[in-house]
Amino acid sequence: MSEKRKHHGDEEVVKELCLANGVSYENIAHEGSNVSSLEIFFSGFPRMVGLSFFPRLCQFTILGQNIKHIEGLECCPLLRELWVVQCHLTGISGLQNCQQLEKLYLYDNQICEIKNLELQIKLEVLWLNNNCITQIQGLNTLQNLNELNLADNNIEKIGHSLDPNVRLQNLNLSGNKISSFKELTLLARLPHLKELALKDPTSTSNPVCLLCNYATHVLYHIPSLQRLDTYDVFCKQVKEAAESTVMKKIMYYNMRVRTAQRNLAESQLSLMERKKTMLQLPGECIRTLNRTLKNLEGELSKAPASCKKSACTTEEGTTHLVEGSIDRSDPATDFSRNPATEHEILSKIDALRERLVLWTRRLDEIEASYKRGLTQATNMMEYTVQFLLMELESVGNIRLEEGSSKDPWFTSCCDLLHSRFSHSDFKVHNITGIKINRVIRIHNSALRLCFEDKLHTLLASEESPSHRNYRRRLEHLFYIPDPEKNSEREDILCISEEGFKTTKQNKALDGEGAILLSNSLSVVEQPRIEHALRQASQDDSKHSTDTIHFRHGQIIVSKVFVGHSMPIREGDPLDRSRYPRVYSVYRNVDTKHRIAMNEERPNSTKMHTGPECSPRRRQWFVFDHELVLPEYIIHFEYITTGDQEQPHSTGIDDTPFNNISLDREVLNMEPVLKPQPRLRSLDDKILLNVARANVLSQITVLNLHGNSLSKIKEISRLTSLRHLTISFNEFTHLDDISHMPNLEFLDASYNRLVTLEGLRRLGQLKQLDLRWNQLTKSKEDTAVLKKHTPALLKLDTRYNPWIKAKTVRMTILGRLTTLTHLDDTMVAEEEAALAVRMAAGSKINQASLLAHSSTNSDRPRSLSLLSTAQLLCPLSPVTCGLSRELELDWTTKITALNLDSQRISKLINLNKLVNLRWASFNDNDISKVEGLDSCVKLEELSLNNNSINTLNGLSKLHCLNKLSLDGNQLSSLDAAALDRLPNLAFMSVENNYIISLHGIQRVRSLLELYIGNNQISTSRDIYYLKGLTNLIILDLYGNPLVEELENYRIYVVFHLPSLKALDGIAVEVTECESAKDMFGGRLTRDMVAEKLGHSNYTDITHLTLQSCSIRMVDLSPADLFCSLRSVNFDHNHLTSFSGLIYLPNLKSLCLNYNHIESILPRQKTQFPLTNRQILYSKVHSSGYGQHSQSKGKGETGPTGSLEPLMGSLEVLHLSHNGISNMANLQLSRLTNLKALFLQVSLAIGNEISQVEGLEGLHQLRELVLDRNRIKALADNSFIAQNVLLELHLAENRIRELNHLDPLTELRKLFLGMNKLQDITELDKLEVLPSLTELSVVGNPVAKNSLHRPEMVLRLSQLQVLDGVMVTLEERTRAELINSDSSACSQYPGPSLPTTEINLPGLLPLMSRNTSLRGMTISAGLQNFMHGHDILSSNMEEAQFHYTYKHKKHKHGNAVRNGQADITMRHIRRAGSNLPTTGLLHDGNIITHRSQEQDSRFPNCGKPPPM
Fold first, then answer.
1. How far is CA 418 from CA 520, 634, 636, 728, in A?
2. Which of 452, 457, 585, 1433 makes an SS bond possible with 568, Cβ 3.0 to 4.6 Å?
């Protein structure tokens, strides 16, 4: 019955299917074979039956049915498209015969696993969205898959499951739980992926989509993408923006990593310095003991042959048998025949050896302490680097922040750990406290989002409102990785990045089924302490000087939700299935040794000891990893009682004082040898005496220990010498020890040897002691020994400052294959064989090229700081091996080559690598850049840690983009080589010997420059970088410049405004502002060198820097500019003379068109200093604080209290400075000034209203105050100018001519264009007895020239008036007019015009408008005039008159006329070397200027332009 019922049901289902598709059920047998498409919606098809009627079915759609399984398709082999949607499928099955299937839609079901699709190799579209899938799998065979939809599942990882689907173009992963950028990076393996959805609008977003830089990360790694989520991203600009952003991040983190590595180098240097300091005392003691020991051995060697024994004892007590010694003691000290004395000597030698053993142990302990410190610093650096790489790979979404005492969270962490430390728990280990060395805060956006989502979901599911107090159930607990796995760092990094492992993952790793945490330090540390103690007890061969084997520790502090927990049931396995309703369990822990605590509490210390054992100390087992959020990593160390008592102890029981006392007791033991005179040179007699021989050829043993010898040329004649001791001398080289065929033993310890060069032909030498010297170059010195000491068996090179100390031993063993002992240690066969292999593998050949190359054409799009060669070669090595199957052109396919650490000495066999793009040759022995001429496509080249000393060999690498030459021997940057690298963007030459940046200016494309730890010391080198406008990262750290240059950082920031980071630190906006304030407009000697193109400062005599925005002058040291005579700084922004006051020999100074307020800046004591003044006060040459307070307006008292300045200055130009108060200028301090120009050519400029402040200018000859606002002359205006020869006051507002009495030597006075109205004012000029030239043109008094006869008459020395010569005829006419006027003065009436007076025999008077142009003056008239400059004065005043006549002109003409005015004015000069001026018949002026006049002007004697 059931069979019939089922058959009847199937029949009804098929009928429903036929009805839905318009197929007659009655004719299904005939019509079914023609049906290619079927569809059934929502109901009526609970099972997939009746499909055998449709053998040609190609498309089948089922929607909204209650189907559990796919079945019945065995008869549909032609099916190409299948839809089973919104059904209740729990798995994928029944498709074995559908091998033509191209599209499969199974979304909105309950499928949990992707499987059974292996045969659908033609499948192109697969939709499995909205199911219960947790893992991507089962798609390996679907290589034709084009579209995959896995949205709205529970997928957390992508992994490598999609790697085979290389044709995939459309991928939808929205609505899953992908939270890591690393997972998205794996999609870069899909070369044809064009559409990717991770946060489709119809689905929820993946957690990764909520992270910063999500789109940037995806677009960088998948450049082929055309659409991301709902955005079209095919635009080239979008891809370039993402590329640029990522490149900047890579540059930034590369800088940070380099900074961390540099910090390690600094720590290593600091540890090394500490080590050297600690070694000084043991070294000196060992030296003293060894010297005494060798002296005693020398005395002992004088005993009979049966008693001769021992010499050359090492610090460890190893002795070598030696025969013979020297004898420089007198017979009274010969102990060789006294057995009692010999016994005393032997006893003292044994005591000395015991002391040497103790001091040697001290050396070992210091070395062990150094290595521990270095290991700790290295671990910290490696942690930092890993953290930074983690930040880079997560594009900043994982950030690890280093804490400091200024951070509140740092203090909270410290307090937390101290509060969880119980002294009683560690008392058995003699631990009294803990010291926190480092706290790192973990910022993981993805983990925090996951933690908060889980917590909110958990709290929302609770019925009670108690979830409002959920914070009370959050606790910070401690975690340490399992010490048994020896993967502490990897575990901490993994937890920081991905969080804690799930219960399933922990069980898979044979771990607990929960995360083990505790709120007690002792509880969480117990496994590590027990493991460390077991290791120490098992490892007896290693003697650690640290009594605490677990001293340094690190824990992760996590925020944990401890609600819904219960105590653990003892005896039950730790499995969540046993505790289904809780998220964690716990147990209370009590310390076993708590009962054994001493009743007396130890004395309190400054260390935090925390409370005693708390009853609430618990061990937690958390089942859900999402409820544990790692927040901090704390590095700490335990403090013992010994550490507190002796903070700097190295583990030696005896104090240094006691050790020295014991040494002194041993040294004072009998017998005490008398000090012997030291030999400073040798001759035959001394050699025979020392060796106690009669003939030089008989000497076989020679002991020259403890002298002051530096040369022993005579030794070469001792052809029979077998044993030579020259310890404790002053040898720097061994050139004299050559051609000694029988020498077998040589002790050269305790000298000053810097090289073994010169050692020649010692074929029998078997033992060589070189301890305690200054040898540094192991490679070169070993080469000498290899060549000239072929029989050497024992070599001791300890206690030398080798450059590469770690590689010294292998270098020596690799070259000196005969050695049996090195540094008092026997050479093992395995060690020797390894060293030989390392030395042999030093050539580039076909095998090395095949093993270390790659043929990839594209650089991996990876967020890694490794070079491209390092990335590619391990990933994609050349697959073909050494066989005849190699193609002839196989080398041309190589694109990347990584030959790091191959001990290569020469770049050869690279000429066929014509397509090489990325190459790395780090950590080799290469001395030259050669053999790369054929690699013209090379883009990246790394040659770090070699021996390269020049950049030659790079000239043909025009495509080079990155160049790294760290750790070489470069001393300069070859400009010729760099000039041929037009595309170089990255250059690193750290840890070299470069003394200058000269040459770097050729690389204008440079973006990053790392040149730290070199020898750059001058600020001028920064100017070589100013042309690098693209430079954004610069590292100069470790150069002398950094320490020596004041305000170094902002100095560099100012000169390189494009810089974004300097010395590993980002450039802040405040730094840029400070740089502008301090150095904006600051003229330094480096700027002078940049402007002039050379730095020969002592050769500079004239300096012109107009319109350079100079605000301050700092030309220190001023002695460099001792030849400077003339300076022109017109059109700048100076407010004072600044550093110009220190120039020792300056004669002429032009500061027109500035803002000069005073020689030195005025102090404003009533107001606080401005930021600018504070900055300027740091510069010694700025002048702040170097002058007394300026006077107020109107104060013109004496200035004798002010110190004179610029004693050599003679000519000063200050026009157009906006000067209104002459007294504030402090001009009286320029005591040697001879010419002062304060004129203005336009309406704007100076605004002087009163002539004052000239009291100290006793040497002033010329004063120009034209075009100011002077109204009157005060009684002290010219009180000190009794030698003034020329005064210009034209175009002012003068109405009265008072107080000119002191100007007794005044020759020329120009008063044109003033307000003089009454001729009586001109009468006051009679007080000027030497006046020869006067101009009052443009004044009301000179309106009708009525003043002229009066002036000619009153001023008997006047020769030129208003630009016109005063002739003899005119003077005679004036006298006649004056007599007539006197006669007619009694009769009223108008006076006759002067032009109408014409006496017989006299020439007519010259019109006031008559110019001197065209005039010819006879020699008689010239002789009549006294003074050589009268004619030139007339000519100038004629020109002056002309300019006044045409004063209403345009600005350009005004400047030119002003220039001409100054030019004419400068034609004449006071003194014996005055110019001679003549007139041609056409009126042209001929001027002959003396050479001394030129010193008044900065431009080779030319006046400054106006």
1. 10, 12, 11, 54
2. 585
